[in-house]
Design goal:
With 389 residues, the protein is of the alpha+beta class. Helix content is 47%, strand content 14%. The strands form 3 sheets. The chain has a 6-stranded antiparallel sheet. A 5-stranded mixed sheet has the order 4-3-5-6-9, with helices on one face. A two-stranded antiparallel sheet has the order 12-13. The longest helix has 24 residues. The protein is globular and about 60 Å long.
């Protein structure tokens, strides 16, 4: 069952108070539209977001000036929350996190006719649970292959937070997980493929840093690098791409300002606009950037992640069609297909499972390839300056 999440708010004009986190995406800030509205000087209008995905609860900063801290450490990407954690917004507001299981609360507060549950009932309940566990272990041991079977049973009852050494939502950092687990295929050491594909991978990693809050090296599989390289070659020397980049130069600062005001990374808006223009959806990347921003803001809030994988999922969600104010077709399909969000919440796994279409995958590749090219156009025979965002 879903845990009961409560925040104890310390700081601001009001006295200490407790607030229940009820929404899947729980927004915190000064603006009245937030789920938790604060009156603290150095807290931003839209400061932080607490998101719940398949039982995992994360907090993320929303590109704020004063920052969001978890247990004293600054966070730059969605970070998993646990009971007892302390979130600090800016310099003067603290949120103490409490997570309780509804079943546990019922066992400790159950009453009959207004009376508290007796210690005898609690003891009997604990004894029954312990007895069932002993019977299960004995049954496994008598069934042969005791060691392997017991470890399998144990894994089925361990939460992802207890088993995962990787960062929340698998942010693309090189991982020992297999292709079947991640959908990314075999990880290839960067030193084994430098030039030209190694250079493309390094450039694509920089693109993801520019459109997200991640600072880690992202790891692509071999086929993805080939697909990005092929698209970059297709864009190289293109007079059309040159004109599109030049057209963006005059407006890139205003686009960036509007995007940051809405809590969206400017690069996400700019590169998606270029990719959609290249796809034939439009002939005007400037008008497209203005048109996509409201949708990207909504999807960013719905999917609740400013990391590299989260940014690519937002691009995929845009390509997969419109949703409602509270849901989206891609989100619904992810709920049915993603069993371990720490390893599987990325576009590569979603494509592997057929959750996103090949057309959407093609847009993601174009998005990354355009990012590679606009970062250093002259390296790809396009005579114009890089786009500064």
């Amino acid at each position: 069952m879903a845990r009961i999440i409560t925040l104890t708010v310390i700081g601001g004009a009001r006295r200490e108070r407790r607030v229940r986190v009820k929404a899947q995406h729980f927004s915190i800030g000064v603006a009245r539209e937030n789920d938790l509205v604060l009156d603290v000087p150095d807290v931003a209008r839209y400061h932080a977001l607490i998101s719940t995905f398949f039982g995992i609860v994360c907090v993320s900063d929303r590109n704020t000036r004063t920052g969001t801290f978890l247990n004293g450490r600054s966070i730059t990407r969605p970070t998993q929350l646990r009971d007892g954690d302390v979130i600090k917004l800016g310099r003067s507001c603290e949120l103490r996190v409490s997570m309780q299981q509804p079943l546990r609360e019922r066992l400790t507060s159950f009453s009959r006719g207004g009376g508290k549950v007796s210690s005898q009932v609690a003891a009997i309940t604990a004894a029954v649970i312990l007895g069932l566990a002993v019977i299960l272990v004995m049954a496994v041991r008598t069934g042969g292959g005791a060691t392997d079977d017991i470890s399998t049973v144990s894994r089925e009852h361990v939460t992802p937070a207890e088993t995962a050494p990787s960062p929340p939502f698998s942010q693309g950092v090189a991982s020992p997980l297999s292709a079947d687990e991640t959908g990314r295929g075999e990880q290839v050491e960067r030193s084994e493929r430098m030039t030209p594909s190694g250079k493309i991978e390094a450039d694509a990693t920089q693109v993801l840093r520019r459109v997200s809050r991640d600072e880690f090296d992202y790891s692509f599989d071999e086929q993805t690098i080939k697909d990005i390289t092929a698209k970059v070659e297709n864009l190289s020397g293109s007079s059309r791409v040159q004109e599109l980049i030049k057209a963006m130069h005059g407006e890139v600062n205003s686009i960036a300002t509007r995007a940051r005001r809405e809590g969206v990374e400017p690069g996400l808006v700019i590169l998606l606009s270029l990719a959609l223009t290249d796809r034939g959806n439009t002939d005007d990347p400037l008008a497209t950037s203005r048109a996509v921003l409201p949708s990207l803001k909504h999807l960013h809030e719905m999917f609740g992640s400013s990391g590299a994988d989260g940014s690519l999922i937002v691009v995929a969600a845009y390509a997969e069609g419109q949703g409602t104010a509270r849901s989206h077709p891609l989100l619904e399909r992810m709920r049915h297909n993603v069993k371990d969000p720490l390893a599987e919440r990325n576009v590569w796994f979603l494509r592997h499972r057929g959750v996103i279409s090949e057309s959407t995958y093609s847009l993601i590749i174009s998005f990354l390839a355009h990012g590679v090219v606009v970062g250093n156009p002259r390296a790809f025979d396009i005579d114009t300056d890089p786009l500064p965002f």
